[in-house]
Fold this sequence. Notes:
Helix content is about 35%, strand content about 20%.
Amino acid sequence: MKKLTQVEFKERRDQLAELMGPNSVAIIATSPVAMRNRDADYKYRADSSFFYLTGFAEPEAVAVIETYESIDEGYTYTLFCRERNREMEIWNGYRAGLEGAIELFEADESFAIAQLDAEIIAKIVNKDTLYYRLGHQTEFDVRVAAWNQQADAQHRQGNTAPAKIVQLDRLLDEMRLHKTESELELMQIASNISAEAHTRAMQTVKAGMMEYELEAELNYIFGKNGCVPAYNSIVGGGENACILHYVENDKVLKDGDLVLIDAACEYQCYASDITRTFPVNGQFSPEQKALYNIVLDAQIAAIEAVQIGNSYKEPHHVAVRILVQGLLDLGIMQGNLEEIIASESYRQFYMHGTGHWLGMDVHDVGSYKHGEDWRVYEEGMVVTVEPGLYIAPDDETVDAKWRGIGIRIEDDIVATANGPLNLTSKVVKTVEEIEALMAKAKSA
Ligand code: GLY
Ligand code: MN
Ligand code: MN
């Protein structure tokens, strides 16, 4: 099982310490456990940025990185975490404990999480800058503010609180936006498993099945590979595909309808994000096929636009032009191509963007603009390319034969010096490939 090594987590801490500069302190807390009801909690998932720096997946943990006046002094990485406790471990599972924090997770020092309030002040006083991820957890924000006050209250002893408090996310988000080879390997694994899940969905779908039954086929492949969904799966038959965030997945899949599946897993905290749309009965109708091929052409051209140096928005511009021309050709829209694009009246049928950063989070961190300008693709950035067309079931401005058809096709693309690299190419997407795969599954 491919996992990141501590060498990589340490490299990230080294990089962060360098970006922080001298005489600074960074405080990074993991996510709290989320309660589902009473004493039953949701399956725990560490905070992405905390995990990115530590590889530590247990709850109730805080990492602190301190730099000193001289860069030559290096930095100190302290991990506050749960102590080992035989009884708690019998009930709730293994803990690395304070020794494990040092031996397994390479902290320079470790303390019990219960010691955080007592130990943290000494790490804050007399630092120039405090780096903190403000706004993620209100309760923790309040504690950080209180620590800052306590540090400030030491001024008569000759100590000072940091003069600057800086949003740590700005540093970490930029680091996370550029993926290393190892990160791309994990994303490729997540993508392969997700592609297998979509392939299985195409092979197993039948008219009369419930949408959640098809979702179960996806979950089987995710679970069999030790993965969890990276986001709530969308399995929308027929007109449900026109609801962009449809997650009820509780309707019958009907003969003659398409089904849109937007579902993918995360592997070792790295996400994939795939959408495929295919006919429940294995054969596209002429209308479905006509619309599908417009979306496919738009998607293929938009992927080609993920070139280093191109604007983040270029795939969207490319996709919109092809989608609008296709709608004009089919008579679904009337008018002038340039005017429709300029007025954005196409949003009646295509109302979302064409992609987003992808990484540890499905809608990953990283800025989209530098100042006024959309930023450009750089080596190792990963973006989704996901154009679609959605003809609302009650849209009386279009011929009835088109209504209720919703289509999206989504792949995950890495910007590389050799051009766009598609991580999710293992699941078919042309009409011919889909129909052939589904026909083969039926005859088997
Ligand atoms: N699955 C969420 C998205 O495509 O943005
Ligand atoms: Mn997406
Ligand atoms: Mn998606």
